[in-house]
Design a protein that fits this description.
This protein has a single domain, classed as Alpha-Beta Plaits (2-Layer Sandwich), CATH 3.30.70. It contains three helices and three strands, in the order βααββα. It has a three-stranded antiparallel β-sheet. The chain is α+β, with helices and mostly antiparallel strands and 79 residues long.
Length: 79
């Protein structure tokens, strides 16, 4: 399964390697991609880790999830 998080585009650009390394330390996470153009982090994971646990890890790294209509018009919210 995967979870998508909308974050600041600037954060994606500045912390690319750090985010991938830190998310990879979570049990059940087996991949992550940062799209700094759209401000997205897509995390591939098993059900060993919940979306909420990933959000906590991202927040500890200084990423706050954007809500719909912030920075990007009428995007879908994170799933």
């Amino acid at each position: 399964m995967y979870s998508t998080f909308l974050v600041s585009k600037d954060q994606c650009l500045a912390y690319n390697n750090q985010v991938l390394n830190e998310l990879g330390k979570l049990q059940g996470v087996f991949g992550a991609e940062l799209d700094w153009i759209d401000g997205l982090i897509v995390v591939s994971h098993t059900d060993e880790v919940s979306r909420e646990e990933i959000v906590v890890k991202l927040e500890l790294m200084g990423f706050s999830e954007r809500k719909e209509n912030q920075d990007r018009g009428t995007d879908e919210p994170s799933i």
